[in-house]
Write a structure and sequence with these properties.
Largest sheet: 4 strands, antiparallel
Radius of gyration: 60 Å
Structural class: alpha+beta
Number of helices: 9
Helix content: 40-55%
Oligomer: single chain
Strand content: 15-25%
Order of helices and strands: EEHHHEEEEEEEEHHHHEHH
Length: 386
């Protein structure tokens, strides 16, 4: 707005007001005031040197500093032309008629944003939304854009039901995890448990610390199973059976708790004796393996001997059956077979009738001295006594 006193009253003439132009007022002000230097006062000892960049005295007399954009906004909000009317509330906010409108608009925007951000929920494909009204479970939201009552009336907790979580024992893998086996031996067992969320409602409301609960139940189940097996089974081929039994036992315990957790499996990564006795244990294991090897060799030899004896017995039974059918023929055949087996392993010379050359240089007899020839052979018809 223009300055209110552009043409101030100069005087009256016959009842009419005579005004003075603004340019004439400015000239009169310049003529009445003493000229002042921008670097100091004009003869006044009280005035010291002045900053040349500050506003010269009298240059802005009667006027305040130029209003800022915030002052202009507040002035218009009060609904006054020059800032004299209306009052200001706490921290300078308007409280007049225009101020109430601004308060209403701002409150409406805040409420709208609050409703939008607390009522509209985007559930990812791997998530489920558990809805509770005033802290009581109401429903489970499927993936997608879902609407509920705004907070604090309704609260939505998003749960990832597809993520596979893994718990390692011992945690960090830097320490020993000693367990007692069924044959009173100690074993250092390292394993891991994989699990996921099967029921989001039970997972949130039935157990307080899901991770701690899973770890406690897993360790309890594994110790219970290891206490029923021997050391050889734990460090040998019985690991898979131990993992399956521990998984079943752990799942049954969690189902009793209504934990909403599904166990995916156990994985035994290490099964060794304690570090302090591992050298002695290796020696014992080597001795056991040697003993087992000797036992296997003995069993093999026993099986061979048994099989050979069974074969001879079967052959004897067959010969006896033939002997009962023809005793004379069977005796002669057995005699010939026996003599053939005996004579096959010796060097021999056969002399049948007198007049045969007593020495036969046969190739089979070159390696040994010839047998002495008797002076006279007995007559087979008269016998050896004649």
């Amino acid at each position: 707005m223009p300055v209110a006193t552009v043409f101030p009253v100069w005087g009256t003439y016959k009842g009419f007001m005579i005004t003075r132009p603004a340019w004439l007022q400015r000239i009169s002000i310049l003529m009445t005031e003493k000229p002042k230097s921008p670097w100091g006062g004009s003869g006044d000892d009280n005035e010291g040197p002045r900053n040349p960049w500050s506003i010269p005295p009298g240059g802005n007399r009667g006027r305040g500093p130029k209003p800022t954009a915030l002052d202009e906004f507040l002035r218009r909000a009060r609904g006054t032309g020059g800032g004299g009317g209306g009052g200001s509330g706490f921290s300078g906010f308007p409280t007049g008629g225009g101020g109430k409108a601004i308060w209403l608009i701002g409150s409406g925007l805040i409420v709208a944003l609050w409703v939008i951000f607390t009522s509209v929920h985007q559930i990812a494909p791997q998530q489920r939304g558990v809805v509770a009204y005033f802290g009581r479970y109401s429903e489970t939201l499927d993936p997608g854009i879902r609407l509920t009552w705004p907070a604090p009336i309704a609260t939505v907790t998003k749960v990832d039901v597809q993520a596979i979580r893994t718990e390692d024992f011992p945690e960090g893998g830097t320490s020993e995890n000693l367990m007692l086996t069924g044959d009173q031996n100690i074993i250092d067992l390292a394993y891991s448990v994989r699990w996921d969320i099967a029921n989001p409602q039970d997972y949130i409301y039935q157990i307080r610390n899901p991770k701690d609960t899973v770890r406690a139940v897993a360790e309890s189940a594994m110790r219970a199973v290891v206490a029923t097996v021997t050391l050889d089974e734990a460090i040998g081929n019985g690991r898979d059976r131990i993992g399956v039994r521990a998984q079943d036992l752990m799942q049954s315990i969690l189902n009793e708790y209504n934990a909403g957790i599904r166990i995916q499996g156990f994985a035994i990564k290490q099964a060794d004796p304690p570090t302090k006795v591992i050298d002695e244990f290796k020696k014992v294991s080597a001795a056991q393996q040697e003993a087992e090897s000797n036992l296997n060799e003995a069993r093999t030899y026993a099986q061979q001997v048994t099989a050979r004896a069974q074969a001879e017995a079967a052959e004897f039974d067959l010969n006896y059956a033939q002997y009962k059918l023809a005793p004379a023929v069977t005796r002669r055949r057995m005699y010939y077979e026996t003599m053939e087996a005996v004579l096959a392993r010796t060097n021999k010379t056969v002399i049948e009738t007198p007049g045969v050359v007593p020495y036969l240089p046969l190739p089979a007899t070159r390696g040994r001295a010839p047998d002495p020839v008797p002076a006279a052979l007995p007559n087979p018809e008269t016998g050896a006594g004649q």
